[in-house]
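Reviewers of the previous submission asked for a worked example of the structure-prediction workflow described in the proposal, so we include one complete record here. The input consisted solely of the amino acid sequence. No template or homolog information was supplied to the procedure at any stage.
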Amino acid sequence: MSPQPSALASRRPQRRDAAQNRGRILAAAHEVFAEQGLSVTLDNIAHHAGVGVGTIYRNYPNKDTLLAEVMADITHTAIATAQEALTFPDAWEGLRHFLHETVGLQARHRALREIMFSPDKLGAAGHAQAQELTAVLQSLTERGHAQGKVRADITHQDLRVLHLMLSALLERSAGQPELWIRYAELFLEAVSVRPPPRPLPPAPGEEDVARLLAWNPAKENPA
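From that input alone, the workflow returned the following structure tokens.
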């Protein structure tokens, strides 16, 4: 027996409301994870989204599932950025574009920085995406080799390690949000085989370095 028209009409708003709620939850999760990191609770996200925590549980069974979807969105963006970098006529400029865009995203997203040191939270789908990104990074690096713009002994794995290094710097340099740019440029000049080198952004001062050395994560993230 087919549903009556009135029954179908009553279901449509429910479907729309459910889709809208899911979208609000995901948008709020992006913002809260970016600002506060992995320690946020579903209550925090529900409050930010303007929904009850029960609404979140109807869409996501736990925080890790919601986090995985947020990270999947971010990894998709990184893959798209790497693919865009492959279209640059100059492979070195493409590499520079990719590095600045993706590390800039890390600078704005605390949970992304933290999860780079806790990859087990990505899940199977996240690891598959990470492998896809790694493959594009390999193409980006090999293109630089083919054009003679990137040192032959530089590999895509160096880019992955650099992201980890800059993540650690970003965690320590909250009061110096642009400091990472100097070290990204330093890396880029080191891997380039094209003269002349570009001027680097300003070096940190003695007090800046002292703050980096004295950084205490417990003070930054009180229990």
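The domain at 65-220 is CATH 1.10.357 (Tetracycline Repressor; domain 2). We consider this example representative of the routine output the project will generate in years two and three.
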